[in-house]
Amino acid sequence: MRNTPSIRGPVVPSRGPLRPLGTDEVRVTGGFWASRQRVNGEQTLAHALEWMDSLGWTANFATVATGSGSRERKGREFSDSEVYKIVEAMSWEHGRSPDSELDARVDALTAAFAAAQAEDGYLSTSFGRDWQRPRHSDLAWGHELYCTGHLVQAAVARTRTAGAGPLLEVARRAADHVCERFQPDGTGVCGHPEIETALVELARLTGEQRYLDQAALFVERRGHRGLPAHEFGWSYFNDDVPVRKATVLRGHAVRSLYLACGAVDVAVETGDDDLLAAVAEQFDRAWARRTYLTGGMGSRHQDEAFGDDFVLPADRAYAETCAGVATVMLAQRLLLATGESRYADVTDRVLHNLIAGAIGDDGRSFFYANTLHQRTPARPWHGGERLDVVGGLRAPWYEVSCCLPNIARLLASLSSYLVTADDTGLRLHQYASCDVETALADGRRVGVEVRTSYPEGGDVAVRVRRGGGRWSITLRVPGWAAGAVLVVGGERRPVAPGDVVVDRDWAVGEEIRLELPMRPRFTWPDPRIDAVRGCVAVERGPVVLCAESLGEHDLDVLRVHTGHEPEQTGDAAVVRARFDVPADASWPYGEPPARPGAAVALRLTPYHRWARRGPSTMRVWLPAD
Amino acid sequence: MRNTPSIRGPVVPSRGPLRPLGTDEVRVTGGFWASRQRVNGEQTLAHALEWMDSLGWTANFATVATGSGSRERKGREFSDSEVYKIVEAMSWEHGRSPDSELDARVDALTAAFAAAQAEDGYLSTSFGRDWQRPRHSDLAWGHELYCTGHLVQAAVARTRTAGAGPLLEVARRAADHVCERFQPDGTGVCGHPEIETALVELARLTGEQRYLDQAALFVERRGHRGLPAHEFGWSYFNDDVPVRKATVLRGHAVRSLYLACGAVDVAVETGDDDLLAAVAEQFDRAWARRTYLTGGMGSRHQDEAFGDDFVLPADRAYAETCAGVATVMLAQRLLLATGESRYADVTDRVLHNLIAGAIGDDGRSFFYANTLHQRTPARPWHGGERLDVVGGLRAPWYEVSCCLPNIARLLASLSSYLVTADDTGLRLHQYASCDVETALADGRRVGVEVRTSYPEGGDVAVRVRRGGGRWSITLRVPGWAAGAVLVVGGERRPVAPGDVVVDRDWAVGEEIRLELPMRPRFTWPDPRIDAVRGCVAVERGPVVLCAESLGEHDLDVLRVHTGHEPEQTGDAAVVRARFDVPADASWPYGEPPARPGAAVALRLTPYHRWARRGPSTMRVWLPAD
């Protein structure tokens, strides 16, 4: 089907088996994500702006606009991108929940961007002026095109939620400059992919072929070792192997995932099925071999990179929050391009574990890295010293704070990830209480009301609010939900994981129900994942549970009794366990094992709730007895 | 006892329960270490000099001596230290095996150092000239005092092997400048400890109290967060907690170990038993909780640092070679200060696994990091691109090549680590075929001939060559050697791990024998070491074995049958094992386990021999069935 470019969502392919619904067509009305969206709008946006104002990142635009080198530019070379990302988040939020203050702030920041933009469209506060390094003199690390990509995405969000205006003009001029500078017979890619997916979306929005062509060029140019050698290797930049020849995501996780997003976008718009298949295979392999149970990607600290297959240490797991956001972005693109609901399973897992865990209850603190094992309680932060990204407590800010605006733009646009339309009706991919209304391909308007306590509960009720007559409602049965039951017209029938299509003559007011089994369950790792051999995790629905200790237990010596299934309690579980008494030897090898402690009932907690009650130790993977 | 400062060894405390023997008193005559010493002298020294010449590191001294900024200084800010370290190695080697070429090269380099030295004694090729950063303007990262420390150690080696000369003069002037600049009422420590232990040794050599005082000051000054904050935290520099208050080695492993060496030296020379006890406790705890089976220390890549207790991932284990050298340095100091033979156990383990593994057969290649698990075969290096320090193949050089000259100086002075004298006789700590002769405390000259095939074999024969009459020979029974037998006068008796003293009236020609059990054995990890839970290692004598595959096995799916003890074959072992067939799922969690493969006999190999036949996969820790 062909889609209109004005759909209110971050990714609107011009064709594909599924049409995304905009944030005006799906409105989250309550539950798990509604409260997070509310906090995002009420707290996170303001918090991020306050920090970026106080650090001088927003003021950089005015600073450089004055043309004076006497006032120092603040922040890292990519700080512009954080401002653009928060403008994108504000745009989605203003679209979701109109707010004149947000609106005015977006306009004011847009004016600052415009003032800092050069006559020829180039826009960066870091490069190009007399007292700065020359434009594009450091493609590997300068992040100029990366920043421009975020500017473009902000403009897309603004245009789709508030109509064309000055931000779109700024972005188009910047994009035009990129196209001219990096034209077909030129060379060069950005060390950090991002411009690719942004340019395709701008092409979708504006209908301008040149943006798509430039994005396709950037995708094809990468992988030929055009960037300078670095100790992390060319794979860090994904510049080691051409995109269509690679077999797995690798290198810097966020770079790799953003590039894959751009490649899918290019493939969809150009009908390049080989490229689409190549990226899907890369993602599928990374998902099968390089992903944490929480959906986190990228295990290495040193280069924020994917490890080799099955190298997934729980302790000091990096699993950057931005990589989680990027995984949701890529999964959505693959879902829209292929119609395969397993990509919605990906989003479900990443959202309910990594993303839900990364942001603090107050919306003003966040994790940069998302470990699966905290051995020692974090020291609370009192300001002053630099924050370690693996501190074990959500921090208000980091020197590099890409993650918070990234979460903010995802949450503000979240409703566009929940439901799509296909040729015959609606497809529900993510379960949240929401009201949905859209026009089907044949022009009929249909609407449903979804009510659920997911992920705490497994009951999903879908009531037809509009659109009597025959059309279909397709429900995703998550991969973990063996034993799910569908109730249609009072009739219960078991449904297997995958898509279940209910294609019938609807009467307005009619309700169907999906019952997902929410028993907590043991989950065993592939034996090739050395780091968690001999351990078991407990999951409940899409939610990974963990053991957390505020000092009452030493989780280093935990042993879980796996002969007894975990029992549900609230939205979590209790397992039978013991705490061993270790042999404290002078050498930790060759000694007899620890003495078994007495049996206890150990209450687990959802992973996304850990470290919310203060410094604690935590483990997702529980040593099995 | 009080020792003379002229003993030919790198560490000669003025007092303590043990007196080290010099390289002239203990000569390795054959076997495992003799061949490595020979290759070190014949190949490694020349190889390192060739690289440092070709990279311009040696020429830096002449470059800056001309006073011209027009010629660019080469290498990192600490490259002087590599030149000093190789001069130290050359000095020990010339002492061990006189060589006029080596001698002349040391003199020539010494002349270059002298020419580059400022009038006031300051010596660095990186700082202080018009076109360079000011002296001591970057104590955290500038490495000036670190370099001076290595200069001093080189001068100590040269003086103890060839007598006082111009290198000692250069070093004294540099050390005097350090004492003046960093005098008692001043502040400042170097970001990389090293000067502390060097200054104490210079004090021992020269009898100058000021060097000892300055070293003591540097030790006391550290730990008060005087260095600037860094994202790795103050612990990286060991500047987080005063040395005498810390409870464990932490932060950057080499920095931590070098500092500990200096602290022990200061403690011994000043009679500061509290400081000695504090450092011993820190090392003991690090050995018990933060050390790999190979004796490697420092598990983190990002900051080359110790991880938390029991965080010892085998895969991408960092275990820097320099940290191994530093562990031997510290263990030797603790052995000499305490007389406790468990510190000789430490040296035994580090030497026969980490150090023996780090250097290539040709003496012209080496590991920087020493992983315990290689999942994918390394790509051979063909020049051009930067070498990853965890490449899985020994490389000829790295951008930071501290490790090779560090191994070289250790191997060239190795005989000084084997034997000591105590009040009543000789103590044999490390077993290598060697000839020993020295004077006891009462002036009597005694000598023994040690013949052994250790570590391949467990037989150690000690024949008295000189010194009839009553004196003692003390033999170390390694911690792993339960079931050892001592044969004295034809009589066999079991001896327990620890020291066994044979105190008797010797006749010249008389021989005693120690028989160490060399059956390969399974070794289990402390259950708190998550990374190797469910795995077992195989050791034989002091040697850690490993499974290595050049493609014939997929070690990711190995399972070892632990119901059957490993069987010896040659100097290694065979275990019963199987290779499972993994379930190749789209998601690596929650699936049924792999299908068991057929039983095979798997031949293991000494860890120190891995990656010598080409790119391979390897694992020390073998998943147990």
Automatic annotation (TrEMBL), chains A, B:
Residues covered by region (Disordered): 1-21
Domain Non-reducing end beta-L-arabinofuranosidase-like GH127 catalytic: 25-415
TM stretches of this protein: none
The Non-reducing end beta-L-arabinofuranosidase-like GH127 C-terminal domain, residue ranges: 521-623
All residue ranges annotated as the Non-reducing end beta-L-arabinofuranosidase-like GH127 middle domain in the record: 426-518
Domain of life per record: Bacteria
Protein name as it appears in the record: Glycoside hydrolase family 127 protein
Lineage: Bacteria, Bacillati, Actinomycetota, Actinomycetes, Pseudonocardiales
